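Q: Sequence in, structure out?
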Amino acid sequence: MLVLSRHRDESIMIGDDVVITVVDIRGDKVRLGIDAPQEIPVHRQEVYEAIKRENRKASNLGASETRDIGH
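A: Exactly. Output:
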């Protein structure tokens, strides 16, 4: 893991297209602004893990369980 120190309003570049900026620092919380192309999904880790969990559950459904989806 790369660890970087940044002050408020300073940024980090990831590749050529993603910019992460420290927007605010209050106590033990840091607010980040993320500027990324629309085709790159950006989620908090807990949301990303929930999406993966739901996708795994959906991929394990049988045909009888998905028959009425969308009707």
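Residues 11-63 form one domain.
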